Amino acid sequence: MVRSGSRTVLIDAGVGDIQRGNINGGQLLGNLAAMGVTPADIDAVVFTHMHFDHMGWASKRVDATYQATFPKASYRAHQHELDYHYSTVNPMHERFAAMATGFESRIETYEDGEEIAPGVTMVLAAGHTPGSSLVVLASRGQRGILLGDTMHCPAQVQHPDWGPMFDVDPVAAHQIRETLVRETAGDTLVGAAHFPNLSFGRLVSSGTTRIWSAVRPTSVL
Amino acid sequence: MSLSPSTTHIGDISITSVTDGTVSFAATTMFPTTTEADWVNHAQFVDNEGNLNLDV
């Protein structure tokens, strides 16, 4: 969750209330509540991309229909992402379309380079999916970047050629990782949705390669 | 495991990590070009059964 200016923005929406097989979700709303944040406090839900584990709470099924979980929020995604997930190329397009009925009237697309809140800019990084985007944060001379699913494991910092089975365009996704590892400055704070403990860190040099170095959060609630 | 939300600041922007849980995959399934030997040097990221437990 990102707060900037008067805006409270949820970056991606978890896997949802699912506990089966290899999925153990269902904690997002409770963890927000523990912070004093209700669904109505969220101004925008911004999708780095729209795989199921990033939009699980976007809508919830009530009887036979889906309803937006965040009643006052706009839902933001790149147009390329919407085009892909609605298309039959996406093997889960029917499920996506059903869930999207709960929020599609609220969708506002973002453009590559668009500032969605003060100092919070979306940057298209297609590969994992056609509309996958990074979230670039800049304020008072400091800089950060939220990776979305351009990387899934810290080991990929050292091995950007390691691609996950979910990359829609493996070649482009690999190029994105190579660029991130090569060009992300060492003082840039990096956040990754799937890294252990949702941790923040930096990409630091180690010999001839770069590695992930986790940093302590400013505060733990 | 439920993680306590933690907050980091970048200038005037606050970023709070709020978990929804985990999704698990065998590391060599998640990354099909890798072998179990590849993960020996990254053992801190896999559990005893060779699974990556990805936060979501």
List the main descriptive attributes of the protein structure presented here:
heterodimer, A: 221 residues, alpha/beta, B: 56 residues, mainly beta, two-stranded antiparallel ribbon, 1 helix, 4 strands, 36% strand, elongated
Protein model, in words:
The complex is a heterodimer of chains A (221) and B (56). Chain A is α/β, with parallel strands linked by helices. Chain A has helices spanning 28-34, 79-86, 93-100, 155-158, 170-183, and strands spanning 2-4, 7-11, 19-20, 23-24, 44-46, 59-62, 65-68, 74-78, 107-110, 115-117, 120-124, 133-139, 142-146, 189-191, 200-206, 209-215, 219-220. In chain A, a hairpin with a 2-residue loop joins β3 (19-20) and β4 (23-24). The longest helix of chain A is centred in the C-terminal third of the chain and has 14 residues, at 170-183. Chain B is mostly beta strands and 56 residues long. Chain B has one helix and four strands. Chain B has one helix at residues 27-30; strands at 6-10, 13-17, 22-26, 51-55. In chain B, the strands form two sheets. Chain B has a two-stranded antiparallel ribbon with strand order 1-2. In chain B, a hairpin with a 2-residue loop joins β1 (6-10) and β2. The relative contact order of chain B is 0.24. The model of chain B has no long low-confidence stretch (mean pLDDT 91). The interface between A and B is large, with 63 and 40 residues. β1 (2-4) of chain A pairs antiparallel with β2 (13-17) of chain B.
Sheet/helix structural class of chain A: alpha/beta
Count the DSSP helices of chain B.
1
Low-confidence residue ranges of chain B: none
The general outline of chain B is elongated
Task: Please give the number of β-strands of chain B.
Answer: 4
**Sheet with the most strands: spatial strand order of chain B:** 1-2
Overall residue-averaged pLDDT value of chain A: 94
Order of helices and strands of chain A: EEEEHEEEEHHEEEEEHHEEEE
Main sheet makeup of chain B: 2 strands, antiparallel
Strand order of the largest sheet of chain A: 10-11-12-13-14-15-16
What's the helix-strand series of chain B? EEEHE
**Count of DSSP strands of chain A:** 17
Distance between the termini of chain A: 14 Å
Number of helices of chain A: 5
Helix content range of chain A: 10-25%
Computed over alpha carbons, the radius of gyration of chain A is: 17 Å
- Largest protein-protein interface: A-B, 63 and 40 residues
